[in-house]
Amino acid sequence: MNFTIQNVLIPAEPGYQTIDVQIQAGRIAAIAPNLEVIGTVVDGRHKLLLPGFVNAHTHSSEMWQRGIIPPAPLELWIAELYDFAPPDPEQVYLSALGTAIETLLSGGTTVVDHLTLIPGQEIETIAAAVRGYREVGIRAFVGPLIQDESLTASLPAGGKAWEPLPCAETAESLLMLMQEVVEKFHRPDEGIEIMVAPTGFQLCSDELFKGLVALSQQHQLCRHTHLLETKAQKMLAHEKYGCSAVQQMQHLGFLGAKTSLAHCVWLDDADITLLAATQSTVVHNPLSNLRLGSGIAPVFKYLQAGVNVTFGCDGAASNDSQDLLEAIKIGSLLHDVTDFDYRNWISPRQAIAMASLGGAKGLGLAEELGSLTVGKQADLVLYDLTRLALLPRTDPIGLLVLGRPTEAVHSAWVKGDRVVADGQVVNVDVDQLRQTLFDRSEWVFNRHSLNVQQFETHYRSVMGLPT
Amino acid sequence: MNFTIQNVLIPAEPGYQTIDVQIQAGRIAAIAPNLEVIGTVVDGRHKLLLPGFVNAHTHSSEMWQRGIIPPAPLELWIAELYDFAPPDPEQVYLSALGTAIETLLSGGTTVVDHLTLIPGQEIETIAAAVRGYREVGIRAFVGPLIQDESLTASLPAGGKAWEPLPCAETAESLLMLMQEVVEKFHRPDEGIEIMVAPTGFQLCSDELFKGLVALSQQHQLCRHTHLLETKAQKMLAHEKYGCSAVQQMQHLGFLGAKTSLAHCVWLDDADITLLAATQSTVVHNPLSNLRLGSGIAPVFKYLQAGVNVTFGCDGAASNDSQDLLEAIKIGSLLHDVTDFDYRNWISPRQAIAMASLGGAKGLGLAEELGSLTVGKQADLVLYDLTRLALLPRTDPIGLLVLGRPTEAVHSAWVKGDRVVADGQVVNVDVDQLRQTLFDRSEWVFNRHSLNVQQFETHYRSVMGLPT
Of A64, A252, A295, B318, which has the maximum CB count within 10 A? Predict the structure, then answer.
């Protein structure tokens, strides 16, 4: 399908211009005034066209636990998450639909799903999520969340008696699994890519990292992992490696231009220099960093060092929203309290660029996505500027980023296919999805974690908290 | 009108219960299972009933400048705000409508409007805002924003040459104005109250504060002001008074159980003790504190000292949203990064209580509002728990506070009048309001502040920023 968007606002330098945009064969074919009509005409009046954003880090199936875990530090939060039985493949499919839809309706055209695997049904898990993403029509990078150490290994010993439990998984079996996953699901031309995505150094052996780096090189895959989300992880890295986790990642060959690293809250200046030198991307997840009390990532330092930074919602059990505009707003404003010099603050236009071109860069797609450029793939979002939250009219991007627009996405295209039209998801019946999610869940009135107590005493001791 | 809400979820200790709620003659008449039907039946199934929240600090007419001022520190942001011509009374009316509607649709049944007055049309300004609030049916506390010193007086000298300009207003004329305002508009029984609301110590004389305290005592009015939003203000207080601003407020008799203080970012421990001792209320505005880089208010310290804390959206030129659920989410999660001990963190239920009963307390209405208690006035909000962002079902309050629900307000009552039904504002045609706001505004493509340059050199110098 081809489209001609007429008389739409797009950002210009300076200001905005009103213009026509042609979408042809999946790409932006032309941007100019008064273009010849090709395909379907879309009325762009009172609307703003932007490149689609990237929800650059989430865990889709956490949607089944959203709203339920109280604010707690990552190490205890994750223990509580382990209380819940794994979802079944149908649930994975449903939460992929939900994640894709919430992402699309808040400006995202690409989702990076660091996907929790159902034990014994790993291939089925990925198949279910991919089915959901294909159905919605969103571009998806799926990074199966794998680890060959047990959860207890993720806490530093801190000089105390703390013996991690063994883990059932081995690097060898996981690498074989990943080989199969790549063969079965990695289809870049169709907008579905597999990433190598070890959970994080706190749960993975060097052997697993090395094997995944080799696999990524063999198939030109993106690399993705959690990195230094918490102070406890920073302590652990020094215990485990005798150096920083970033230095170890570099040593293992994991950093690079197609590597994106979720969180990066606890890096020091030398680490930041390494990220810049390797052209690695930081995925900033401001909401989960607040909710888990992880800290405020040093985003101004990253930007000043030339490190590419983009935004993620993180999984819905630690945010608990997949609203990308919320992540962009908070992720850009949060840092103003870390530096009195407002000349370093992130402007709404910078935030938009970080969320679009910054996201594309982290996936090795800066030449293909992330800006309104003729020849790039048409991953585009059209915002209705007549929503109450975007009125009165002032600066469209200021309103979008600094406000709290809801229901503002009028249309969205991925690879030139229109996946949202008139504010409605085109390919999925959202009301039916709501009914299914409702039917497959129940109110939780009063629960207590079984797993947290196993960790809490040691956690408080090693973090120096009063017992 | 009377109502019987049937089979609705309400919070219980622990968990929730499904129950009926009767609304009669403006009050909560009964809360029990299987109540006799009185008045209109409302189906409460799959819905959560909570007391209405208070949007405890905003400036409604800033809606005309939302989205337009880039992130900047308060002192430069306000200089930029002064670039804009004052609104006309019709614009004040329209932005009061918009503020009331956005507040209602995000769970608020009361708005505290620290209202900027149009010079020479002060009474007309208040009349216009009150007309808007009465029309929507929201409970409104209007505090006319008054000051008898010029904007230049709000910057500390910091030992530099800095001579504040004179101000056209006098304390005497402002106090006469306020006397008239109280007589004309203060109607507590009708849900419209006038507050004494000097802009802040940085722009007001002791004489003005004292006169307003006397007026508030004469008419039992609430008191409201900005307090120590920025580091510059803390510096100024010591220059101006030789003591902290809080000590000066106490000296002037401004603190008390019906006094609410917006921001309170830069208080020290002795100040906090004073707030607790006087039962004053802190209004936390997390979004504007981030956007203006003011800092993170020490909210855990307030709570630990027994100071009442509630939430505000702040004006739409410094947030730029009137979404109270956003303020509650960010205002409760933001502080997790200030204290590693998660036992001090704010739970979703605490956040809800701060936004409802905490808001009522700050307005001297804790006996009348803020909880689901038989006999209290029926300021209530019914949330539709089947919205996509609130699914799958888990913990309803967790989903509401930690998620990012949109269009979740099914119904709202103020003084027992239903002002939102089936997700629609009852008394105002929102589509027509959108059209009017659209018609009365235009896109701003490229603007530069005229006023900022007057302040910037001195600001950078006195704040120790590189020039």
Answer: B318
- Note whether A464 and B419 are within 8 A (CB): no
Q: What is the pLDDT of residue B230?
A: 98
Residues of chain A with CATH 3.20.20.140: 53-362
Chain B residues whose beta carbon lies within 8 Å of the beta carbon of residue A66: 392, 394, 398-399, 402-403
Report pTM.
0.98
Assigned CATH class of A3-50+372-439? mainly beta
Dihedral angle sign, alpha carbons of residues A386, A392, A394, A397? negative
Residues of chain A with CATH 2.30.40.10: 3-50+372-439
The DSSP secondary structure of A289-307, one letter per residue, reads HHHTT-----HHHHHHHT-
CATH no. for A53-362: 3.20.20.140
Query: How close, in Å, is residue A299 to chain B by CA atoms?
Result: 14
Q: Provide the shortest C-alpha distance from residue A374 to chain B (in Å).
A: 23
Which of B95, B94, B107, B132 is closest to B54 using CA atoms? B107
% pLDDT > 90, chain A? 93
pLDDT of the residue at B455: 86
Please count the residue pairs, one from chain A and one from chain B, whose beta carbons lie less than 8 angstroms apart.
Answer: 250
- Taking CA–CA distances from A408, the nearest residue in chain B reads B406
Q: Which chain B positions have a beta carbon within 8 Å of A321's beta carbon?
A: 389, 402-404
Contact in structure between B15 and A446 (CB atoms under 8 Å):
yes
- CB atoms A442 and B393 under 8 Å: yes
Fold category of B3-50+375-425 in CATH: Urease, subunit C; domain 1 (2.30.40)
Q: Which residues of A35-58 are buried (b: 16+ CB within 10 A; e: fewer)?
A: beeeeeebebebbbbbbbbbbbbb
The yes-or-no verdict on residue A183 having pLDDT over 80 is yes
Q: Which residues of chain B have pLDDT under 50?
A: none
pLDDT of residue A241: 97
- Res A178 pLDDT > 80: yes
Q: What is the pLDDT of residue A161?
A: 84
Overall average pLDDT of the A113-138 stretch: 98
Q: Is pLDDT at A103 greater than 80 in this prediction?
A: yes
**pLDDT of A446 higher than 80:** no
CA dihedral B299, B300, B305, B307 (to 10 degrees): 30
Q: With an 8 Å Cβ cutoff, are B296 and A337 in contact? A: yes
- Chain B residues near residue A98 by CB distance under 8 angstroms: 388, 391
Res A349 pLDDT > 90: yes
CA separation (Å) from B320 to A2, A132, B246, B418?
36, 34, 28, 27
Q: Do B333 and A101 touch (CB under 8 A)?
A: no
pLDDT at A450: 78
Q: Report CA B108 to chain centroid distance, whole Å.
A: 10
State how far residue A251 is from chain B, nearest Cα, in angstroms. 31
CB-nearest partner of A394 from B68, B430, B433: B68
Closest B-chain CA to A332: B291
